[in-house]
Design a protein that fits this description.
This protein has 414 residues and is α+β, with helices and mostly antiparallel strands. The chain has one domain: Cytochrome p450, CATH 1.10.630.10. It contains 19 helices and ten strands. The chain has a five-stranded mixed β-sheet with strand order 1-2-8-5-3, covered by helices on one side. A three-stranded antiparallel β-sheet has the order 4-10-9. Helix 12 crosses helix 13. The longest helix is centred in the middle third of the chain and has 27 residues. It starts with 12 loop residues before the first helix and ends with a strand.
């Protein structure tokens, strides 16, 4: 017997880690669902998610205060750690226009399609370098061998920071992501808060260096850019933007590399299609993005009384728009749970969001994924999963949907 929606607690770790049945039930029974356990309005169908995401005048992104619960607000030790760093500033993700547009305009040039196109040789070389390290083994931990280091190396390269600090980048990124985790533990909150402070001081030094001596990298572009005569960003503003780029350019791409590999390992017929016709790689990447949707859901705040999908929503209400659910909407994507590298309507997938908050780094992510998958599929084939490890498991996060781990076996293409 199916569970009633009212029996399901949407923020339980088990639901966050595996939300597919819950999302399907939402789409079928209550596309705009006012949850009695949380008070949140969950928006799950493609048309309604897009409607909310595109209407920044009615639905605000200023949800930063929701990231810290009441317990954190009263934790003096946590406050003492955070006071050692720089003040938090709302820039792109948790800001609304016109302020949000200013920050975006100051950062968007390095992430244009033309700018990221110039990265293709570097991406190709890096992908080959990583594969060289394990290609003769016939097996690897895909996360540590490729899915994690590829995005970390890329974001370090475009920011222009030393490769020796890559392990720090991953730690800092994970620390930033932890604020979205379910079931947070106090000691881990303290540890990750210290890591965020360490990140701030590291990049504050880099920012001051780039102000004095600019170099040819994205960090210099961010630090010294101005738009329409406006002043450049100060250090806390720069740190906020860099933190968002670090997470967006790292965790989300890692997730797509991981879930994409799992999809190929469990759908050998789709692997055969794309290896027979490599021109399908860009379409395959869009299908991987649709099914993985690493930023699976996002907050919004209703600015005024409104009606959405026939449901009255009072001003000040909290909404959760579910991109991951929208990307599996059966009314938009035929056989939506299936992996199909030839799917013909993938311009409708919204893994990078919609509206003014459409992901700034989408061109970079697409370039990184397309070029890397071309290299991977040229050199490797017949992906399989070790016995007993067929299921891909995910971390329970409020906003992100990242795989825990992935081991693979494969054959070298000759």
């Amino acid at each position: 017997m199916a569970n009633l929606l009212t029996d399901i607690k949407p923020f339980d770790p088990e639901v966050l880690a595996c939300p597919y049945k819950f999302n399907q039930q939402l789409r079928a029974e209550a596309p705009v669902y006012h949850c009695p356990h949380t008070g949140v309005y969950f928006v799950s169908t493609h048309n309604l998610v897009v409607e909310v995401a595109k209407n920044e005048k009615l639905f605000s992104n200023k949800f930063a205060l929701m990231q810290s619960g009441e317990r954190q607000e009263r934790d003096e030790e946590l406050h003492d750690i955070r006071k050692q760093g720089f003040p938090s500033v709302e820039t792109m993700l948790t800001q609304d226009p016109p302020e949000q547009r200013r920050y975006r305009s100051l950062c968007q040039k390095p992430f244009s399609v033309s700018s990221v196109a110039r990265l293709e040789p570097y991406i190709t070389g890096l992908a080959n370098e990583l594969i060289d390290a394990f290609i003769d083994n016939g097996e690897c931990n895909w996360m540590s061998a490729f899915a994690v280091p590829m995005p970390v190396r890329m974001i370090a390269y475009i920011l222009g920071v030393p490769i020796d600090d890559l392990d720090l980048f991953k730690e800092w990124s994970d620390a930033s992501v932890y604020q979205f985790a379910a079931g947070q533990e106090r000691q881990e909150l303290l540890r990750t808060a210290q890591l965020v402070v360490d990140f701030q001081h590291y990049f504050a030094k880099k920012i001051e260096e780039r102000k004095v001596t600019p170099t040819d990298d994205v960090l210099s572009d961010i630090v010294n850019s101005s738009a329409d005569g406006q002043k450049p960003m100060d250090v806390p503003e720069c740190l906020s933007v860099i933190s968002q780029l670090l997470v967006a350019g790292n965790e989300t791409t890692t997730s797509t590399f991981a879930e994409g590999m799992h999809l190929l390992a469990t759908h050998p017929e789709q692997l055969a299609k794309v290896q027979k016709d490599p021109s399908l790689v860009p379409n395959m990447v869009e299908e991987m993005l649709r099914l993985s949707t690493p930023t699976t859901q996002m907050w919004r705040i209703a600015k005024e009384d409104t009606v959405l999908g026939g449901v009255e929503i009072p001003a000040g209400s909290t909404l959760m728009i579910k991109f991951g659910s929208a990307n599996r909407d059966e009314l938009v994507f035929d056989q939506s749970a299936n992996f199909d590298v030839t799917r013909d309507n993938l311009k409708s997938q919204i893994a990078f969001g919609q509206g003014v908050h459409h992901c700034l780094g989408a061109p970079l992510a697409r370039q990184e994924l397309i070029v890397s998958w071309r290299v991977i599929l040229e050199r490797m084939t017949n992906f399989t999963l070790p016995a007993g490890e067929e299921e891909l498991k995910f971390l329970p996060s409020l906003l992100l949907h990242g795989p825990v781990d992935l081991n693979i076996e494969f054959e070298k293409r000759v």
